[in-house]
Every structure is written in C-alpha cells, then in structure tokens.
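Researcher: Predict the fold of IclR family transcriptional regulator.
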Amino acid sequence: MSQTVDRALSILPLLAEGPADLGQVADRLGVHKSTALRLLRTLHEHGMVYRQSDQRYRLGARLIALAQEAMENLDIREIAHPHLVRLNEQCGHTVHLAVYEEDEVLYIDKVESRYPVRMYSRIGKPVAITVAAVAKLLLADLPEHERRPLAEKLDYPMYTARSTPNPEAFLRELAKVREQGWATDLGGHEESINCVAAPIRGADGRVVAAMSVSAPNVVVTADELLTLLPLVRRTAGDISGEYSGRTSAKGTA
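Model: Structure tokens for IclR family transcriptional regulator follow.
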C-alpha cells in the first residue's frame, strides 16, 4: 500500500512540470502503463488530476484549490516565531516580523533585545512605512502598477535627516531593495536606531512577510549590524522554506 501511495504522489510533481501522457507517467514511475493508468484514474476520481481532450493529464482543480486553502490557513507568525527566537539568541538584538495589510505594514511578532536599551515598537502597531526596512521589502515586491500609485499617495515625514523625502526617492529605494533582496533603515526613523531586514517568501516566490534585526548605536554601530545580514537572510530563507513546504521544521519529520 505504501508503495502505491508513493507512486501516486510521485505523479503530482511530474504533472506540475506540465501535462504528460500515460507513457510519460509510466516511464517516470518505472511501471507498466496499466499500473500508471490505475493510479491516474484514482487521482482523477479525487480531482487531483484532469485528463485533457488530447489524452494528456494535468494537475486537477481540486488539488490547486486544496493548496490555496492550505496556504491561506498557514500562520506565518506561528511558523516564524521559533526562528526569530533562535536568531535573537544568536545576536542578542531586537527581532521583528511584519506583514502588509490594507495599505499598512504591521508588526505581528517581536522578540526583545537582551540589552538594557530597547525599542518602543509594539506588536500590532503600524511601522513608519516610508523608512522602515521591513516596509521597503514588502512594498518593493508589489507590481509596478501598484507600487507607484501607493508611493505617490503616501506622506513623507522627515523623522530624521536620513528619512525618505518624496515619492521618487522612495521608488528608487524600492527598486534597489527589489534588486538586492534585502533592506536597511540606517537612522531613517530614529537617529540612534539601525535595522537590517530580509524577505520571507511563499511557494510562488512572492514576499509574504519581512523580518528584521534592529539595534541602537550605543550597542552596535551600523557597520557592525550589517555584518549580521547573512544570518538574517539565512533565517528568512529557513522560514520561507518551512512556510512554502520546501523544508520541514528543525527537529520534525
């Protein structure tokens, strides 16, 4: 029975590459066509595959609907939290997780710094959208036709001399972030606070959340904080892999 299930499940990645005929499925599984046909018929009955008019098979709508439903029910905070705690234990600084909802970027998780000087950020509080590193990552991933109108309707308060001054400067920064795949806020919101951030991506490659490490100048300099970027990006990659189903949580099957 386990071999039958294994073979049936092996068909799905093949069809994810594109439609395939019976012979191609049988060859990939290393079985006779009659065996491949039985497996395909069972998957077809459950809506997991669909037979086209040209007799080739593709993934079925039921499978796609289940995948979408599963993604919608995933709690990114629950998945990310152990990784954020681990990162905090490694570097000691404040770690944030943020998402983009209804034209706002919100913190949905925070692990406090172990140092006496701490940040005033709170879970559920909107971030300073034109300067925050997590906001830059989330907005940089928007399509161009959404990115520009949003940038043009935002206000641009000058929190510090390093704050983003206008829509054109913001769009240039988003383009840079989109290209390099990470973001910083080096004194843009508060002169004494620096931040580095990395994106968390779903199975489709889109950014679903952003995470960051922040610290005041009295604890580490901006240059010292930037040395943590590889660790931050690696952590974001681990969360992305678990969220998208490419990898399992550490310590689990």
